Amino acid sequence: MAYAVKEMFYTLQGEGRNAGRAAVFCRFSGCNLWNGRQADRGRAVCTFCDTEFVGVDGAGGGGFGSAGELAAAVAATWPAGGSGTPLVVLTGGEPLLQVDAALIAALHEQGFEIAVETNGTIAPPPGLDWICVSPKAGAQLAVTAGDELKLVFPQHGAGPSRYETLAFTHFLLQPMDGPERERNTEAAVAYCLAHPRWQLSLQIHKILCIP
Ligand SMILES: C[S@@+](CC[C@H](N)C(=O)[O-])C[C@H]1O[C@@H](n2cnc3c(N)ncnc32)[C@H](O)[C@@H]1O
Ligand SMILES: Nc1nc2[nH]cc(C(=O)O)c2c(=O)[nH]1
Ligand code: SF4
Ligand SMILES: [Mg+2]
Predict the structure, then answer these.
(1) Is 207 exposed, middle or buried (0-12, 13-18, 19+ CB in 10 A)?
(2) CATH of the domain at 137
(3) What ipTM was reported for this prediction?
(4) Is this structure's pTM higher than 0.90?
(5) Is 14 annotated as belonging to a binding site?
(6) Domain Radical SAM core spans what residues (predicted)?
């Protein structure tokens, strides 16, 4: 199987329970909830995306002809001689349009722990080490268990109470970035204070101005 990757980079995980941990980010091209064109954003299922994921033209991106080739590129992006278990975060776009058993096996072979950031509309293949689901209002949720449920807040028609009985270990609220970011952050803080099952997830990479 071939894989289309928008970009690949080494940085700190900026979101969720693993915020602050070093990881290779592998951003797959394409998404099933938006075609990535600004002109079509208003008509998309997911309207608030903060990411460019069209094409394979970013740094470290490209077409990879096999799982082994992509896993080797991920390994080459991890610093030589680094201590600790290497971590790769598969994101996008929607990574589960492309991630398959062969890629999971090849990344494990390279010694990586594998985390995925998904919108939860596509069932993941077995073997992933960390599953982060971020549900979107208007999209049918197919993944109802995992390590963390990270809800962008607020979303009309996707209130937190709808998700908190699902089989996730951690529940996080992430303020929606955009023109209302400050107001959304205040609302997320207030929600977490009133509902302690939910924990705040700030996008620390944006605060730090790192990728
Ligand atoms: C760009 S998405 C890619 C992975 C997958 N398609 C998804 O939606 O989970 C990565 C993370 O960024 C979050 N995100 C996207 N746009 C955001 C925004 N404007 N504010 C806060 N988080 C956002 C998503 O909900 C998801 O948790
Ligand atoms: N530093 C950093 N952390 C992230 N966590 C999730 C991201 C994503 O776009 O999926 C992301 C990202 O783009 N950068
Ligand atoms: S589902 Fe994820 S990648 Fe797709 S448009 Fe929404 S936030 Fe962006
Ligand atoms: Mg991002």
Answers:
(1) exposed
(2) 3.20.20.70
(3) 0.99
(4) yes
(5) yes
(6) 18-211
